[in-house]
Amino acid sequence: xxxxxxVLIKKGxxxxxxxxxxxxxxxxxxxxxxxxxxxxxxxxxKIKIIYADKMWVLPGLVDIHVHLRxxxxxxxxxxxxxxxxxxxxxxxxxxxxxxxxxxxxxxxxTLYIMERAAQKAYVTIYPIACITKNQEGKIITEFGRLxxxxxxxxxxxGKWVQNSNVMKRALFYAKNFDLAVISHCEDSTLSKGGQVNxxxxxxxxxxxxxxTSAETIGVIRDLILAKETKKSIHLAxxxxxxxxxxxxxxxxxxxxxxxxTCPHYFTLTEECVENYNTLAKVNPPLRxxxxxxxxxxxxxxxxxxxISSDHAPHSPLxxxxxxxxxxxxxxxxxxxxxxSLNLIKEGYLNPxxxxxxxxxxxxxxxxxxxxxxxxxxxxxxxxxxxxxxYILSEDMIKSKSKNTPFLNQKLKGKIKMxxxxxxxxxxxx
Length: 429
Ligand code: DOR
Fold this sequence. Notes:
Elements: E1 6-16, E2 21-30, E3 33-38, E4 48-51, E5 56-59, E6 61-66, H1 79-88, E7 91-96, H2 107-120, E8 124-129, H3 143-149, E9 153-155, H4 164-177, E10 180-183, H5 188-191, E11 196-197, H6 200-205, E12 209-210, H7 212-229, E13 233-235, H8 244-252, E14 257-261, H9 263-267, H10 289-301, E15 306-307, H11 316-319, H12 336-345, H13 351-366, E16 380-391, E17 410-420, E18 423-426
Parallel strand pairs: 1-4, 1-5, 6-7, 7-8, 8-9, 9-10, 10-13, 11-12, 13-14, 14-15
Antiparallel strand pairs: 1-2, 2-3, 5-16, 16-17, 17-18
Helix pairs in contact: 2-3, 4-7
The protein binds (4S)-2,6-dioxohexahydropyrimidine-4-carboxylic acid (DOR).
């Protein structure tokens, strides 16, 4: 007779945004599937029991914005190391951005990524393809063939599609294939050559600034095109308070859109670039304290409903150099949850809402069934100690690159255990 593999998680705080539930109880997994979710489950036979008192038990996080760097820049990251870092961050599914080398603008590159993922990935990968060939903003890629190859969305992330007519056609085209369109809203005629937020610090440091208008103009144009084409647009990594009134307007007008931000935009300010700290160089740039507060308010109001990491690994070769030559971006897979938990402590979100922003909403944008604790759902479970404090040391980071301003800083909230189907990963140490 076949042996049944059963795991019972006991007395954890079970939070599942797909069912709007948040209660202390038990979760039973059988042969890699959720089979029971109750206040109390008693099993007579001897099975594996995980005691989760004071822990949170959540479906795996879904990170819609990750740079895995494979193919082409494997000295920064690859599919194996990037997804291992994701696992340690409680992210069990991620969308990988197409600005690889070569860029993911053809089914061949998509299939290569899928094949490598099948061999090496710890978690599920959803490839995102380019909107335009070589991200040049001119010729639209073959969305139909890319979809067939396995992509869930398109984006020229790292660049905005500057030509409005190309973007409009891309939205119509993506609508036919039911692909998510993810926009990096940054008008390059305003941001080109920019290093940091335009304002006091750019003047003080003598660096070219990136004005907030670069993002605001990007957002407004994209919202207007979403309205005209009736195709939803996903606005990536929003950073500035200036865009908020336009998001409000778009909601009132019932324009189809979703908006995302990342922990660094609600945690850090432009002051971090003092002393030319390249670890704080990122696109869009870190902004002011007023922007940080406005982004948190927008999360609270539900104008921004997705939180992603924008994990952007770079090696010391690209970071330990002059500020103007350094590559923008910071890693974020293992800091996504701990930094987002601060939103609860500060009263902006409750745990269920945060779980919605980290699990349910990104899944909806990608058009995939979200990880959940519904009966018969595949087990994708994370167990989190929301109170555990620790210093983020280099050896804890599973990514090849260590470029984060949070390195050696105190974080709160730790992923203790991950269950993916029949595999159990104990991450306590
Ligand atoms: O800072 C960034 N780094 N922003 C982006 O949009 C791209 C990313 C990267 O690929 O390094």
